[in-house]
From TrEMBL:
One of its GO terms (molecular function) is oxidoreductase activity. Residues 17-143 form the DSBA-like thioredoxin domain. This is DSBA-like thioredoxin domain-containing protein. Transmembrane segments: none annotated. PANTHER family: GLUTATHIONE S-TRANSFERASE KAPPA (PTHR13887), THIOREDOXIN SUPERFAMILY PROTEIN (PTHR13887:SF41). InterPro entries: DSBA-like_thioredoxin_dom (IPR001853), Thioredoxin-like_sf (IPR036249). Pfam families: DSBA.
Length: 143
């Protein structure tokens, strides 16, 4: 299934998604400052975070989030994905993890495969990114 989904998408990775943080083209000091800022924001509002050492390729998570929205499961799916990344430090670019989370909220593999085979998720994401760029947003998540 994992390879089947990868082949279906045929997408290029956004920017540096999927890379270990240590391999990103930024000075270590910048990455340390970024992590410290995120940790401070979380501490200020009382959220416990476990930051991943990998910048996930979030495209599949975004596609499945839209699928969950269309099936009335967005809030539950979003919470599981959010907690997996921010609280558990998991790679939300991992297809097996995402399919497991989708199953927990009652979304089925065959339905997901049918959805991702269509142009709809790519079209929806492209439109959303275009809309967000009008507000100066060029990455997700954003604040």
């Amino acid at each position: 299934l994992d390879m089947e989904i990868l082949i279906l998408f045929g997408f290029q990775v956004f920017y540096n998604e999927g890379m270990d943080l240590s391999n990103l083209p930024y000075p270590k000091e910048y990455l340390d400052m970024m992590k410290a800022n995120i940790k401070k924001l979380a501490d200020d509002i009382g959220i416990s975070l476990k930051l991943s050492e990998k910048l996930p390729n979030s495209r599949l998570a975004l596609y499945l989030s839209e699928f969950a929205r269309k099936n009335g499961k967005f809030d539950d799916f979003h919470k599981l994905v959010f907690d997996s990344y921010w609280k558990d430090g998991k790679d939300i670019g991992d297809q097996a993890l995402l399919l497991s989370l989708a199953a927990k909220v009652g979304l089925y593999k065959n339905d997901i495969l049918e959805y991702v085979k269509s142009e709809e998720p790519k079209s929806e994401l492209t439109k959303s990114l275009k809309d967000l760029r009008q507000y100066g947003i060029n990455g997700v998540p954003t604040f």
